[in-house]
Amino acid sequence: MNDTSLCRPVWSMLNGEQADLAFATGSAVRIDPRYGPFGAARDRSTTAQADLAELVRSSPHDIWLVEPDEWPAPPGTNVVRTAPLVQMVADGEGNSTDPDPAIVPLTDADVPEMTELALATEPGPWGELTHQYGQFFGIRGGDTLAAMAGERMRPAPGYAEVSGVCTWPDYRGRGMARRLIAHVMQAQRARGDTPFLHSYAGNAAAIGLYESLGFRIARTMTVTILAPA
Known about the structure:
Aminopeptidase; 2 domains
């Protein structure tokens, strides 16, 4: 399977499988801000950079670009932060697992708890509609949503990103994240998708977990966060 779309996942998703979530300005595009802060430009040309600058200026929050290299700030914007990432792909056959009765699909009724968990543990950007990227699953500890995982980017047919993996500190060390990721991966593979994900490059513990689940590092990436100057 050709994975060139993964080199520029935000541009690919917003000009393809998830174009219905895109807000475009000329040759630059961003996702509906209710879903999160991601954006991209067609290239680094003067025209595309000017369009990207307009998107940044009109955005209710900073714009995150996920690219193979740091993206230069267009005139009128500043780089707030950059961070190295690794992009990991699970393109092996995978192993089927028995259903886990503790894992339940999350619904709109769970959104307040999902949001509280995501904002407290910061698995990645979270907006009011982030839960609608795809199906999320959770494990409860009594009445508490203890952990969750779900989906985000679909840059091309046949690829689906595992995302939103987080656990309340009191419930860590019980293997909940592993079980949830495996469950999301199995659901993705059942519909013919290859799972992939992004991790901060310095998070060795998370990368080790992902590798144990069948992910491999496919490429290094960089997140560049832009704001108006």
